[in-house]
Design brief:
The chain is built from 1 helix and 20 strands. By secondary structure, it is mainly beta.
Length: 176
């Protein structure tokens, strides 16, 4: 996997995290314990820091870019970002699922335990409260999440971690 140092900063990957050899990490990027970064992802911490917490999963072909000095990207714990999303300089809180093809723009803040429908656009500076289902372009809150949905968000992240823990035993890993 390409781990590219930029401006004296090199990506840091926790020893229990899985990062595909087909992903690219650039600059000030940190991947937390039991998290995964899947094939085709590009994570660029070239102007600000990108931090991904524990048990979080960045699925195929996701772009995460902290491209302005005052807007780092912080992705919490137990977050799932589904395939083909673009995340720019924003805060995504714990237990959130970002649906396939969604875009989160600079300065957005997403509360804890949010379910974001596929192809949703969260505009620059938009603030999304906790425990809600959002959808649309621009995103709008449709309803509160049930307790069952809240629990499913965490369970999903834990299942992905278990899968990558098992895969890690068989997949070759580049030395960090």
């Amino acid at each position: 996997m390409p781990l590219i140092e930029l401006k004296g900063k090199r990506p840091k990957i926790h020893e229990t995290a899985y990062v595909s050899d087909l992903a690219t990490l650039i600059g000030d990027v940190e991947i937390g314990a039991n998290s995964s970064v899947w094939p085709g992802c590009i994570i660029r911490g070239d102007f600000a820091r990108v931090e991904i917490g524990e048990f979080s999963h960045i699925q195929d072909s996701v772009l995460i870019h902290a491209h302005m000095a005052n807007t780092p990207t912080n992705i919490g714990n137990y977050v799932t970002i589904e395939s083909c999303c673009a995340i720019y300089g924003s805060l995504i809180s714990d237990y959130t699922i970002v649906g396939t093809g969604s875009i989160v723009f600079d300065g957005a803040t997403i509360g804890e335990t949010v379910l974001i429908a596929p192809n949703t656009m969260i505009t620059s500076g938009q603030v999304v409260g906790a425990r809600v289902f959002i959808q649309g372009a621009p995103a709008a809150t449709l309803r509160k999440l049930s307790m069952e949905e809240v629990e499913q968000n965490r369970d999903r992240a834990e299942r992905y971690s278990e899968v990558f823990e098992k895969l890690g035993r068989w997949l070759p890993r580049e030395k960090k």
